[in-house]
Write a structure and sequence with these properties.
Length: 64
C-alpha cells in the first residue's frame, strides 16, 4: 500500500504542477496531499477520509 500511495502522490503532484500554478503560498498542505488522501480513503478505507488521514500521518513522514 505504501508504494501505491507514493505513486498516487507523485502522479497528482506532477499533474497539478502542469495544470495549475501554486496560487496561495500560506497553506501547509498541498493539493496533491489532499487528493492523495481522498484516493487512498476511497481505495482502502471505504471512503473514510479521517481514517485514511490518520494512516497517512502514521506511515508517511511527508504528511506531518
Amino acid at each position: 500500500m505504501t508504494d501505491y500511495t507514493i505513486a498516487i502522490y507523485c502522479f497528482m503532484d506532477d499533474y497539478l504542477k502542469i495544470s495549475q500554478p501554486n496560487l496561495d503560498t500560506r497553506r501547509k498542505v498541498s493539493d496533491a496531499e489532499i487528493l492523495t488522501v481522498a484516493v487512498v480513503s476511497a481505495q482502502y478505507f471505504y471512503g473514510n477520509q479521517h481514517t485514511a488521514y490518520q494512516y497517512m500521518q502514521q506511515h508517511h513522514a511527508w504528511l506531518r
